[in-house]
Write a structure and sequence with these properties.
single chain, 606 residues, alpha/beta, Rossmann fold, GMP Synthetase, Chain A, domain 3, five-stranded parallel β-sheet, 18 helices, disordered N terminus, acetate-CoA ligase activity, EC 6.2.1.17, AMP-dep_synth/lig_dom, EC 6.2.1.1, AMP-bd_C_sf
Length: 606
């Protein structure tokens, strides 16, 4: 009997992959404490934990109770001590300034330990908070790590936010010290940070003791009032290195604010121990990387991807992380991503579908990228929004590797669903999917009445408690709000307008960005203003309160918004209607909205 050996080998590998993945998933389901206890062995602990999980309060589970560690030690010092000090830790690639710099683990340790000494010299101690408002420069990462080194909590704020946004965070976080830079660099222009900081401090009631300013090379030197301003270079010249401070596993590593300036600020708190365990585990098991390989997350340090996978994750795992100060296009052209991956030997990359769409829009055949061999690239991961199939297939063809969509958010800190490459999950999952639930996450789908839906039915994704290590610990200074309230996003800003009495914001499909926010607004009966004038006022209001990062430009006015029996707005149904994919029998209020949408919002491609 003839046997097709290649077919048999393929089937054997397929079955073994299935059983390996299944065994991993069953292990964490059956005994999550054992699963995560074993994962925690990849982290260096100053004191061993006495209890892996305390879920007395399922909303606020405590992982690795009794354990003590230091995030900076695990991300930097232990690699130096283990003989890897000369390995590249950070590759800084800045096409907007023409700078390329390789920074070793030993050099990071030297910079961070001295910066920690600067912070301590100016009164920052364990438990204090430091606000970081900086562009994509290595010094921003050094500041994050220096805070972690001394047990101070950092709150890094995206440099694209307006002064008002910054001021609200300063008031809520109450930082002991603020660290900023002289300028941010964008294609064709520069962003002056100091006027933004000065305006924010004028607006805020809380004042930090000092403002440490990093003056960028080859640009004019700036400062603030002498009683407030500290110069980075001068301070570092006389600084004494500071050792790592041992902190409990549940010690807050950082606060990352996620909503606008209206209402009570909402800052996600991340712990030290669980976060370290989860990030280290995901680098090998989700992303399939070995220590020493080059990894690039093309995001901003101000977002959760930047915290998790530009700074902490790759350094914890002993990888080389690329810090990119540029754009997918325009710095100088669509070849940028190809160049960076080729020059630095990137093994895996993480970006947003929007970035790929931008490249494709300017270079449909990827002609600019063909001159750059990507011999070391194995996988391209995308997240941050749904990746449409056309974009996914274009990326596969032109980057020449599997393109794997996965889903997560600020609160999770790492992926909730993914194709876990390191667990031998398929690198060719069904097109249009975002993988399976990552070990640690129990995911289900419910309707607006909180009932679980049948398979192949649209609904709201929920994750059952308790959450795994590394997920949001709480909201900064407001655990009650964490339990009672979630993010109302742009709606809060729109409702600040005196003419608006009700509002729902949904995602409108967009050929470049994937989705953009669209506000459906109900106006006061006595409103006499023109529609165009109101749209301009509302867009400006959102920009002033949240900043241009909201990318908010589309508003339509309707007579009323539908409500469920419990009084909630069915946003999923509205989103389907907006995108010309209704899934329900429309009551009268939906018919009115549909009529308005036909008049104001065109279908994609028309």
């Amino acid at each position: 009997m003839k046997v097709d050996s290649e077919y048999v080998l393929h089937e054997w590998n397929t079955q073994m992959t299935y059983y390996f993945e299944l065994n991993t998933r069953l292990t964490w389901h059956v005994n999550p404490e054992k699963f995560w206890s074993e994962a925690a062995e990849g982290i260096t602990w100053f004191e061993q934990w006495t209890q892996t999980l305390d879920d007395t309060d399922t909303v606020f589970p405590k992982w690795f109770v009794g354990g003590k560690l230091n995030m900076c030690y695990n991300a930097v010092d232990r690699h130096v001590e283990n003989g890897r000090g000369d390995q590249a830790a950070v590759i800084y690639d800045s096409p907007v300034t023409g700078t390329k710099q390789v920074i070793t683990y030993r050099e990071v340790q030297e910079q961070v330990s001295r910066l920690a000494g600067v912070l301590v010299r100016h009164g920052v101690k364990t438990g204090d908070l430091v606000v970081i408002y900086m562009p994509m420069v290595p010094q921003a990462m050094f500041t994050m790590l220096a805070c972690a080194r001394i047990g101070a909590t950092h709150s890094l704020i995206f440099g694209g936010f307006a002064s008002k946004e910054l001021s609200v965070r300063i008031d809520h976080a109450k930082p002991k010290l603020l660290v900023t830079a002289s300028f941010g660099i964008e294609p064709g222009r520069r962003v002056e940070y100091i006027p933004l900081v000065e305006k924010a401090l004028e607006l805020s009631s809380h004042k930090p003791h000092k403002v440490l300013i990093y003056n960028r090379p080859s640009m004019e030197k700036v400062s603030m009032h002498p009683d407030l301003s500290l110069d980075w270079e001068e301070e570092m010249a006389t600084a004494r290195p500071h050792d790592c401070v041992s902190v409990p596993a549940h010690h807050p590593l950082y606060v990352l604010y996620t909503s606008g300036t209206t209402g009570t600020p909402k800052g996600v708190v991340r712990d030290s121990g669980g976060y370290a365990v989860m990030l280290n585990w995901t680098m090998s098991n989700v992303y399939g990387l070995a220590p020493g390989e080059v990894w690039w997350a093309a995001s901003d340090l101000g977002w959760v991807v930047g915290h998790s996978y530009i700074c902490y994750g790759p350094l914890l795992h002993g990888n080389t992380t690329v810090l990119y100060e540029g754009k997918p296009v325009g710095t100088p052209d669509p070849r940028a991503f190809f160049r960076v991956m080729s020059e630095h030997g990137t093994a895996s990359m993480f970006t947003a579908p929007t970035a790929i769409r931008a490249i494709r829009q300017q270079d449909p055949q990827a002609e600019h990228g063909k001159q750059y061999p990507l011999s070391r690239l194995r996988n391209l991961f995308v997240a941050g929004e749904r990746c449409d199939i056309e974009t996914l297939e274009w990326a596969k063809r032109n980057f020449g590797v599997p393109v794997l969509d996965h889903w997560w958010q600020t609160e999770s800190g790492s992926s909730i669903t993914a194709s876990c490459v390191g667990l031998d999950c398929s690198r060719t999952p069904p097109t249009g999917t975002a993988g399976k639930a990552v070990p640690g996450y129990n995911v289900t789908v419910i309707d607006d009445e909180m009932q679980q839906v049948k398979p192949r039915t649209l609904g709201n994704i929920v994750v059952k408690l308790p959450l795994p290590p590394g997920a949001a610990l709480s909201l900064w200074q407001n655990q009650t709000l964490f339990k009672e309230l979630y993010f109302t996003k742009i709606c809060e800003s729109v409702l600040l307008h005196s003419a608006v009495v009700d509002c729902a914001v949904v995602g409108l499909e967009d050929p470049l960005k994937g989705h953009v926010p669209l506000a459906l607004c109900v106006l006061r009966n006595d409103c006499q203003k023109s529609a165009d004038g109101l749209v301009n006022e509302i867009v400006k209001l959102v920009k002033d309160t949240i900043g241009p990062v909201a990318a908010f430009k589309k508003v339509v006015f309707v007579k009323a918004l539908p409500k469920t029996r419990s009084g909630k707005i069915p946003r999923s149904s509205l989103a389907n209607l907006v995108n010309h994919n209704p899934t329900i029998e429309d009551p009268e209020v939906f018919k009115d909205i549909e009529k308005v949408l036909r008049e104001t919002v065109k279908e994609p491609g028309k």
